[in-house]
Amino acid sequence: MTLSELNSLNEQQAAELFHQCCASSHWVECMVAARPYANLESLLVASDAVWSHCTKDDYLEAFDAHPKIGDINSLKEKYANTQTMAGHEQSGVNEASEQTLTALADGNSQYEKRFGYIFIVCATGKSASEMLSLLEQRLGNEPADELLIAASEQHKITRIRLCKWLKNTSKPKEE
């Protein structure tokens, strides 16, 4: 997908594509309406601006589109080879142990019970052990603080998806 192709899509087609990056209806509608985009930077600036005006309901809608981590077999598959999973960003990291996968599944269940939504983290470049450590740290957060952290993680995920979606090999700027 190029920016030219994105800009020429009808509203429904553009909405379907944006929804793959972030499932907040408000975010999708605003991103479709903000077209045309001159370049990747203008697309990311628009995404940042729209996300900064989203509400708790928008965040929760976006979170709901993520798969729930909690099934040991799906975790084993996801972290079977951390080097492959992270596109060689984690060279030298050992495969995830059964103990780590079990703890991650259990932690995800605890997180969902505590906060009312699944654990949201930008997993790019993170091993299962790193994800577990982050999850354990965040379990102690106050609900209002954790919502903002999860929303920030969703924002990182969205930016990465936008860049990948447009076949851009450069990484988005992290703030």
Written account of the structure:
This protein is an all-alpha fold. The protein folds into two domains: 60 residues, Oxo-4-hydroxy-4-carboxy-5-ureidoimidazoline decarboxylase (UraD-like, Orthogonal Bundle); 75 residues, Oxo-4-hydroxy-4-carboxy-5-ureidoimidazoline decarboxylase (UraD-like). Helices cover 63% and strands 0% of the residues. The protein is built from ten helices and no strands. α4 runs antiparallel to α10 and α8 packs parallel to α9. The longest helix has 23 residues. It is elongated and about 50 Å long. The C terminus is likely disordered.
Please give the share of residues in helix.
55-70%
Query: What's the alpha carbon Rg, rounded to whole Å?
Result: 17 Å
Total of domains? 2
Number of helices: 10
State the main characteristics.
175 residues, mainly alpha, UraD-like, 2 domains, 10 helices
Summarize the structure.
The chain is built from ten helices and no strands. The protein is mainly alpha-helical and 175 residues long.
Note the topology.
Blueprint: H1 3-8, H2 11-21, H3 25-33, H4 40-52, H5 56-64, H6 72-78, H7 82-85, H8 98-115, H9 128-138, H10 143-165
Helix pairs in contact: 2-3, 3-4, 4-10, 5-10, 8-9
